[in-house]
Amino acid sequence: MSNTALIVGASGIVGSATAALLHQEGWQVAGLARHPVRQDGVAPVAGDLQDPASLARAVADIAPSHVFLATWQRRPTEAEMIRINRAMIENLLEALRPKGSVRHVALVTGLKHYLGPFEAYGKGRLPQTPFREDQGRLDIENFYYAQEDAVFAAAARDGFTWSVHRPHTIIGKAVGNAMNMGTTLACYATLCRELGRPFVFPGSAVQWNGLTDMTDARLLARQLLWASTEPKAANEAFNVVNGDVFRWSWMWGRIADWFGIEAVPFDGTHRPLEPRMAQDGPAWAEIAARHGLAEPNLEKLASPWHTDADLGRPIEVVTDMSKSRRLGFTAYQATDDAFFDLFGRLRADRLIP
Length: 353
Hints:
Blueprint: E1 4-8, H1 13-24, E2 28-33, E3 43-46, H2 52-58, E4 66-69, H3 78-96, E5 104-108, H4 112-115, H5 143-158, E6 161-167, E7 170-171, H6 181-195, H7 205-209, E8 211-212, E9 215-216, H8 217-229, E10 236-240, E11 246-247, H9 248-259, H10 273-277, H11 281-291, H12 304-311, H13 322-327, H14 335-348
Parallel strand pairs: 1-2, 1-4, 2-3, 4-5, 5-6, 6-10, 7-9
Antiparallel strand pairs: 8-11
Helix pairs in contact: 1-8, 3-5
C-alpha cells in the first residue's frame, strides 16, 4: 500500500526532519500549517487547527495514510494549554475522518510526561530515573496527557493504530521554533565570541555534574517512521534519545572548542540565559549585518527560556530506551556530533557566522 504522510508542524525541528526522511524514503508528504512555508518534497496545506471549517477545506483533497503530530501551542496556564492542544488534535482527526484513509497517527510529546508541565516542571514527587514508559502519568494535569487522550479516543472510534514518542531536549534546525536549545547555544556562543564575553554555563550544579541525554531530530524521525510501519510497535508509547549519556561539564568544553572560545570553569552559580540575553537583540542585529547573516532577529533563533528550563533542572535526567530496542529500533547518534552537525548547518545557511 502506498504511504502518504500529513505532517502537522512540518516546518518545525521535528516536522522538518521527518518530512526530509519520508521524502527520501519515497513517501508523498504534505505539511499542514496556517501559513505553510516552502519545503523540498512537501506539499503545502493551509489550514487552522483551531478552526474546524478551515480544516475541512484544507484536507478535502488529501487522504493521508499516516498522520504525524509534531506541533503544540503555548498558553499562559496549563488549563488553557490542555484546552487548546487537545482541541487541535480533535479538530484535525475529525476533519480527516470522512475519508477513512488514516492507518496510523504518531504523536510527539516529550519528557514532561515524567517531569510535569511548565507550571510544575521538575517539582514535586517525580518517578525515578532512568524514565521508563511503564512509569505512567503523574497525578497532575498535563497537556501531553490531553493530547494522548485525544489520539486514543479517535483511534478507538476510527480504527487506526497510534504511537506516542517522548524525546528529551531535541537538537535540530528550525527558525522560529519555541524550544531550540542547539540554536540558542549557538547564538549565545557567537555573542560571547563577538562581544568578548565569558562563555559561562547558565545552568544548575546538578546539570553540570549529573548525567543527561538528548535527542537528535533526525533520530526521532527515524523512530517515527519505524513505529508507523512496524506492526510490533503499534499502539505503544516510546521514549527516544540518542543512546549516549554525558555530563555538561564535558559537553560545555566541546561546544566552546567548536566556536573557538574558552569555556569558563563552572563555580556552582546558576546564571540563567534569559535575563542575560534579554537585551542582545541590537547586538545580534549588528553581528548579522556585519557577517551578512540571513536572520537578524535574535528572537526568531534563540529560546533562552526553554534552555534555562532544561539546564536549570534540580534533578538528573536520563531516559531508558529498552522498550523500542527490544522491538528492533536500534538507531544511535552521538550527541556531541549532533550539536556539531547542527552548528555546521546553521553556518552553511548563514544563520550564525
